[in-house]
Design a protein that fits this description.
Blueprint lengths: L27 E5 L2 H10 L1 H13 L13 E6 L3 H25 L12 H8 L3 H13 L5 E6 L3 H12 L1 H5 L4 E5 L5 E8 H4 L2 H14 L5 H15 L2 E9 L2 E7 L32 E7 L1 H6 L7 H12 L5 H6 L1 H15 L6 E7 L2 E8 L6 H4 L14 E8 L5 H22 L4 H33 E13 L16 E10 L2 H20 L12 E6 L2 E6 L11 E4 L3 E5 L2 H12 L9 E6 H17 L5 H5 L6 E11 L2 E10 L7
Antiparallel strand pairs: 1-2, 1-8, 2-3, 3-7, 4-5, 5-6, 6-7, 8-9, 9-10, 10-20, 11-12, 11-18, 12-13, 13-17, 14-15, 15-16, 16-17, 18-19, 19-20
Helix pairs in contact: 3-5, 3-12, 5-10, 12-14, 14-16, 16-17, 17-18
Length: 668
């Protein structure tokens, strides 16, 4: 019998750009496939030509730039790069903390702003000892991450010339010692060993300090010593800059040491040999356009476990420096600690290693393996009975799947609410708002807050104890716009958005009890509303449609598409804005269907979103509004529905994205 070789990404490496040259132990890499072909196809589209015409019309003409032909390229972060990425993340957190400290305390830190600006940060550090010390600490720990850029081009020398000019490499190289690496494919890589004390010489540091003292004579001797120490720390740093060249290939890389500069010795040593890639071998013969791989820890470090804590720490530090609010800031310390713990629990993620490939086939197609949060594997192995709801023709956005039961989201929300309550309490104690604020806080605390807490506890009981983990949220434009007060002429032609939250039921009786408690709490709150006549809830209207029982507060519009409504079947709970939508969902879920796929599904229809916005824009323009929105919507026309699926298969995360797109003949 003839031997049949099953095609894999490794056997097809010669057709996959430079991916076979990327070392397999990289922590992240994105590598193009058929870059030139795909770029030319994009440039040939009407959408691109129209977009570029708009850009050229709105932006000034650029100066002459060096044009370099590029066939393929990759960007790779090598082993141990995540340590440096983590420090950059800390630097960003330091900036945010300092910016919000400045907002509260004023002074030299007040003008930082909330968008990272290295120049402003350095200027502030020269005036703030605490900030300067923090920057020196980051600098002491920072090492150059191993990063490599590879380019396949018929003009590799031109590529290196462009890189040299853009990065001002001549200023760094000087008389730096050189060595050479020759790879298994004959590529020659020159490694320049750069010692920063040869760039920042003692004489140059003295000149800098003299110029700084002249520009800022108010710098104290203590700050001068800190600045000198910071420059000395920078001068002790060493790193390498590598430039590689071969037939139609060029490489530029930086790293801490020469040992971190490497290419794959063979395909078996490349990123294509990573275990996650084996699940993607089924795509080996597709006309791929992109290959990506990443380590889980690298992905983790890009996403902070405490995204808001730098802001909280900065606000409290700024308040503590103000005499009036110092006591308040100290009192909020325990709440801030509790909030930080809840934030870490909610945002902390541990991803697995992952890989993905992408190609064009009637739109963007992506297939990926791994890269999933470990704690979500079990839920992603289960199917959702609500997946079919996302296939309704009027859906704009939908998400279905099995959720987790950690409760960290609610715990985090509750921690924020306790912190906000404590902050409001301390502000009134500090005299902010005067006696009126004290009276208002007392009224809210005694008359409003108990009802709000009871209402919240009812929702918490329903979501955590009465409902199961399987659910979906749906936003569509399938409703008929009723004659609302103030609706402009033609407004009834705009489709009405409808929202529904759908869940499986675990304990129907508990839903009824909790709902009664929520209504009682809401009635208590309404009694506190200052009004000429007592305010109460409208009567509940109950309707039945087959096995679905709907309870709603009727509005005066006579519309089944615009009415706050809860519908229940024996197995399903629906909360939303349209009874008609919920009845339709109940009908769909009664129908027999095929086997349900496992995992999470997310769908976004840009076609339907554009349809709604276009109808809205037309009515707006007809009634004297500007037509700017209508003009902008033409750029959405090529984009259709995007469908994302994520599931777990034999202990590994899997996923796919299908985003349909088309070119257009012309734009009106």
């Amino acid at each position: 019998m003839p031997i049949v070789v099953k095609p894999t990404l490794m056997t097809e490496a010669a057709k996959l750009g430079l991916a076979g040259r990327v070392a397999g132990d990289v922590e992240f890499c994105v590598s193009s496939v058929q870059w030139k072909k795909n770029a030319e196809a994009l440039k040939a589209s009407n959408w691109w030509r129209q977009m570029m015409a708009l850009v050229e019309d709105k932006t000034p003409a650029a100066g002459e730039a060096m044009n370099v032909a590029v066939d393929e390229m990759f960007l790779a972060f090598g082993k141990e790069s995540l340590k440096s990425i983590a420090l950059l993340r800390q630097l960003n957190d330091l900036y945010n903390e300092t910016a919000y400290r400045g907002m509260m305390s004023g002074g030299v830190l007040a003008g930082l702003g909330t968008s990272f600006d290295a120049k402003k940060l350095m200027e502030a550090a020269l005036r703030d000892p605490e900030l300067l010390e923090a920057l020196i600490l980051v600098l002491e720990r920072f090492e150059m991450p191993p990063v490599m850029i590879g380019v396949a081009s018929p003009e590799p020398e031109k590529v290196l010339k462009l890189a040299s000019d853009q990065l001002h490499l001549a200023e760094w190289l000087g008389d730096a010692p050189q060595s050479r690496i020759v790879t298994t494919q004959g590529e020659k890589i020159t490694v320049n060993e750069i010692a920063m004390d040869q760039v920042l010489t003692v004489e140059r540091r003295r000149e800098w300090m003299a110029a700084l003292m002249q520009a800022m004579p108010q710098i104290t001797p203590e700050m001068k010593d800190r600045i000198t120490r910071g420059m000395d720390v920078l001068a002790r740093k060493k790193w390498v800059l590598a430039l590689g060249l071969s037939t139609e290939r060029a490489y530029v890389a930086v790293a801490k040491s020469k040992e971190q500069i490497r290419l794959a010795n063979s395909v078996e040593d490349s990123m294509l040999a990573r275990p996650e890639m084996r699940r993607l071998d089924v795509d080996a013969l597709k006309s791929l356009g992109l290959i990506v791989c990443w380590d889980g820890p690298f992905w983790d470090v890009l996403q902070s476990d405490e995204p808001f804590q730098p802001i909280v720490r900065g606000l409290l530090a700024g308040l503590q420096s103000e005499k009036m609010f110092a006591g308040m800031a100290r009192s909020l310390g325990p709440q801030a600690v509790e909030l930080a713990a809840a934030e870490r629990a909610f945002y902390h993620r541990e991803h697995t290693n992952g890989a993905a490939v992408a190609w064009w086939e009637g739109g963007l197609q992506v297939d990926f393996a791994g890269g999933i949060v470990k704690a979500e594997m079990e839920a992603l192995a289960k199917a959702s009975q609500f997946t079919a709801l996302l296939d309704e023709p009027e859906v704009v956005f939908g998400m279905s799947g099995q959720g987790s039961t950690t409760g960290t989201g609610r715990a985090y929300f509750e921690a924020w609410m306790r912190t906000a309550y404590a902050a409001a309490q301390e502000l009134t104690k500090a005299g902010v708002g005067g006696e009126k604020a004290v009276e208002t806080f007392k009224l809210v605390d005694q008359a409003v807050l108990p009802g709000v807490i009871s209402l919240y506890d009812g929702t918490k009981t329903i979501w955590q104890k009465a409902l199961g983990n399987d659910g979906a949220i749906i936003l569509d434009i399938g409703g008929k716009m009723p004659l609302l007060p103030g609706l402009p002429p033609g407004g009834d032609a705009v489709p009405l958005p409808r929202f529904a939250n759908v869940h499986e039921i675990k304990n129907r009786e508990l839903i009824g009890v909790s709902w009664q408690n929520m209504e009682t709490a809401l009635q208590m709150l309404l009694k506190q509303v200052p009004a000429p006549q007592p305010v109460g809830l409208p009567p509940v209207v109950t309707k039945r449609s087959d096995d679905a029982v709907s309870h709603s507060y009727e509005l005066p519009f006579g519309s089944e598409d615009l009415v706050p409504c809860v519908s229940l079947t024996e197995k399903m709970f629906m909360l939303g804005t349209s009874r008609a939508q919920q009845v339709r969902f109940a009908e769909i879920l009664r129908l027999p269907g095929s086997a349900l796929p496992a995992g999470l599904r997310v769908k976004m229809s840009f076609t339907k979103l554009r349809e709604f916005l276009k109808a809205f824009a037309m009515v707006r323009a007809q009634n004297g509004g500007t037509d700017g929105l209508k003009a902008a919507l033409k750029w959405m026309e090529p984009f259709e529905a995007m469908d994302l699926r994520v599931w777990s298969d034999e202990g590994m995360g899997r996923g796919s994205v299908s985003w349909k797109m088309h070119d257009v003949l012309s734009y009106d």
